[in-house]
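Reviewers of the previous submission asked for a worked example of the structure-prediction workflow described in the proposal, so we include one complete record here. The input consisted solely of the amino acid sequence. No template or homolog information was supplied to the procedure at any stage.
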Amino acid sequence: MPSETHRRHAEPASSDALIEIDHVSFGYDASRAILSDLSLSFKRGKVTAILGGSGCGKTTLLRLIGGVYAVNKGAVRFDGEVIDTRNREQLYRLRRRLGMLFQFGALFTDLSVFENVAFPLREQTDFPEAMIRDIVLMKLNAVGLRGAAQLRIAEVSGGMARRVALARAIALDPELIMYDEPFAGLDLISMGVAANLIRTLNDVTGATSLVVSHDVAECMTISDHVILLATQGRVVAQGTPAELMNSTEPEVRQFVRGEPDGPVKFHYPARPLAEDFGVTL
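From that input alone, the workflow returned the following structure tokens.
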């Protein structure tokens, strides 16, 4: 009998969902599926963590929501509107409503902290420079870096650079903020700061936040809802952080507790050693 967390992902998307993933399948080529018949919904105003091992399709899912790639089957809906990657006008309009924190920041190293945050405002609005200045300084103040506005990117630490990227992601006051591995490479203090910022910004702005991460502890602390994915985007379980942390299902327990032995195998599927090396073992 399937558990409550297994059953929940099959329910139809509710009307308060900002993003709906409707029976989506996707692969970068015909030989390997990254996502297979995946259905999910992400509620407005909530922080949802998307967890799972490397290669299960977490970042790919964010790219599909952002319209970077087209689905092979199914549909991705943003506020009820099916995303069409062939419709450039629609993509520009929808992307203005979302912010993206990339895994490695993707900052412009030849621009200052200020100019990095100002970039989307200059590209996507016709605001006067005085207004852009005020907005940039407000966003930098929100992440604690107003005093670093004139520094070069090479002059800031890795944790500070991640906060600059976050300030840029929220420059246009997006309804949806997507975080791709926001805690990667950060020390414990910077990690805590980043986690608190994600939660605070979500609560203050009313945005919807999707956090893709391998960091179980931080995600469980700040999330309203957690989704655990496996290979090909299979939903292992989803629910509140407490439900997943207290789960007795072996695959869930192994992942959230970081246990080396369990249903999730270390080795990628391969032929027997004897076939590759021509020896009898």
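The chain has eleven helices and ten strands. We consider this example representative of the routine output the project will generate in years two and three.
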